[in-house]
């Protein structure tokens, strides 16, 4: 079996990479730490169809499946895009929550619906208030409870900003203060939405790992000690090789999980959890190597490394941490 992207899927990924390289450089991510992210990159992705990849063509979308979108989301991770692309394009869109198909008054509430600057924040809520990324500027909230999924506008949610390790995500505790709009109470649909959220987070982690490795390789070639680039030292090579190996293990698992989600395989939960665990592990190994190879400068907020490292820390615990997904894999094989 070949785990890779064909020409069409690679074209979507390349388009996203080029757009994000221009419109979401490190300085844009850094700026998002102190203010809501600017709309340029998000609008460009929307214009390119990234938000509508898995929306049926009858509803104005591209009518494709998750295997087309996963590469785009990986590129969003690589750029540390400070917008909830996974929640909007991969979790909400397949449920019909878009600017053209929603039956709520979201367009009036949000001004632009879910196109253009519109975005969806997603989380589970129960007795305790949920902490939701992008809550301070999201146009809609897709929240999960024991009764299923419901959609809320910003005026139907109480928002309490919280400090987190990655301030560019603009997280907040949210509490519904209105009934909201029912989306689905079908357990299978709710579970499928969860699997797509896990899948997107795994893809973002792979992209973040690739970016951290790129930064470290470039630094190791530029930084000299004892008259030589530190990248020529065997110990540094070992660190970088270990990181590359973990990334190359995780990337095909994410593509396999996307294929499984797209085709509704019975073992999708195992494959998705396996992808999330491997992607989390790859990001952890790569992050440690990046910090060690950068030395003291890697610990400073002035260096760009922290933008990607802290995002990887946050996503490692999003949509289920490593222990949760390891337990799901173990249970699926009878351990």
Q: Which range does the strand content fall in? A: 5-15%
Structure annotation, total helices: 11
* Name of the CATH superfamily of the largest domain: Acyl-CoA dehydrogenase/oxidase, N-terminal domain
| Spatial ordering of strands, largest sheet | 1-3-4-7
List how many beta strands DSSP finds. Answer: 9
C-alpha termini separation: 27 Å
Shape: globular
Question: H/E element string?
Answer: HHHHHHEEEEEEEHEEHHHH
Structural class label? alpha+beta
What average pLDDT do the residues reach?
A: 89
Overall description:
By secondary structure, the chain is an alpha+beta fold. The chain folds into 2 domains: 7-185, Orthogonal Bundle (Butyryl-Coa Dehydrogenase, subunit A, domain 1), CATH 1.10.540.10; 188-332, Butyryl-CoA Dehydrogenase, subunit A, domain 3 (Up-down Bundle), CATH 1.20.140.10. The chain is 52% helix and 11% strand. Strands 1-3-4-7 form a 4-stranded mixed β-sheet. Strands 2-6-5 form a 3-stranded antiparallel β-sheet, with no helix packed on it. Helix 5 (85-92) runs antiparallel to helix 7, helix 8 packs antiparallel against helix 9 and helix 9 (268-294) packs antiparallel against helix 11 (322-332). The radius of gyration is 20 Å and the shape is globular. The model is unreliable at 100-117 (pLDDT under 50).
